[in-house]
Specification:
Elements (H helix, E strand, L loop, with lengths): L1 E9 L3 H8 L4 H5 L4 E6 L13 E6 L2 E12 L3 E7 L4 E14 L2 E12 L4 H21 L3
Antiparallel strand pairs: 1-7, 2-3, 3-4, 4-5, 5-6, 6-7
């Protein structure tokens, strides 16, 4: 299985960083110009971007990627999977949060990917790694 991992320290408390990265709308800032919209709420009214929620990603009216939140452990971990994509055999995203001290949070973002076409996974993962590094740098300046 091909995978990437990105680590980034945020100069903000754990709760604030988790709150930021647990909202689908945050990724509009992180991955602009890619647009992200929630198309299905979670079953928890107080956390609409929680477990079971689905976000769609793309440009303008064309948003072919759909990701579903499969696990949310408050202030610890978020997991999601790509759904309804015939080009992807397996995709798991895991975002882990660790308080280094009261005002510093380490975020570890891991993605496993297996595309249906051979040799495509490594190319996609390389692009994702660059996008996540850039996106996290943008977000780190907002908290």
């Amino acid at each position: 299985m091909n995978s990437i991992q990105v680590k980034k320290e945020f100069n903000a408390p754990l709760e604030k960083v988790f709150d930021l990265l647990s909202k689908h709308s945050t990724y509009n800032v992180a991955f602009a110009p890619i647009q992200v919209e929630r198309i299905k709420d979670s079953v928890e009214p107080e956390r609409p971007d929680g477990v079971g929620s689905v976000r769609r990603m793309g440009f303008g009216p064309v948003k072919p990627l759909q990701e579903q939140i499969t696990l949310l452990e408050l202030n610890e971990r978020i997991e999601y999977q790509i759904i309804k994509n015939p080009l992807v055999k397996h995709h798991l995203g895991v975002i882990e949060f660790e308080a280094k001290d009261a005002d510093t949070t380490l975020v570890t973002y891991t993605i496993e990917l297996q595309a249906r076409a051979p040799f495509v996974s490594k190319l996609i993962l390389a692009q994702l790694k660059s996008a996540i590094k850039l996106g996290f740098s943008k977000l780190a300046k907002t908290v």
